[in-house]
Amino acid sequence: MLHASHSGQIPDIATRKIATAICVLAVAVTSRASAGPVDELKFGVLAHDVIARKELSADINGEILFEPIGLLTDERNPPWLRAMLEPRPGLGFTANTNGKTSQGNLDLDWREKVVDRVMGADDEIYAELQAGGSFNNGKTGETASDREALGSHVLFHLSFESGYALTGHYSLGLYFDHISNGGLAQYNRSLNNAGLRFGYRP
Predict the structure, then answer these.
(1) Does residue 147 sit in helix, strand or coil?
(2) Domain coverage including residue 135
């Protein structure tokens, strides 16, 4: 069983596990970023801490998504398997506008077309899942009533987005964002944000 220190911070061994996973992901993201072009840019406004509501405020969100990695794919694979093995690396941030928790994230992004030709030849409804790691400037241990005790400055990151893509260049999606340490520390008050994001694909 893992025990937190007196300050409420996540134990060193747990921090190393999360940090190691994020570093491996960072290598994949940065190597792809240097080798390939940008696939999509995302910008949005989010409601901050929408579940616990202790840090309820507003966020500015942005993200760069690069071309799919495609290292393990084979043209002979069925489309669903190729989609699973071709995630897009991403670098993102969520900046709080009221001095509460802000974060940066490194992710792998899986996007899938749900319905196409909704109102035109090039539009679609899509779903998008992201998984990776995040770095934050929040509180880690016992805090005041208006702050979350996150347990660590290095956390796991999950997000989901679903929306409408108008032509191949512009999209508008509903976005939900979650960070936590997965129960590796005594303090694990997750942080959850939700809002709208605008996407542009060059």
Answers:
(1) coil
(2) 12-200
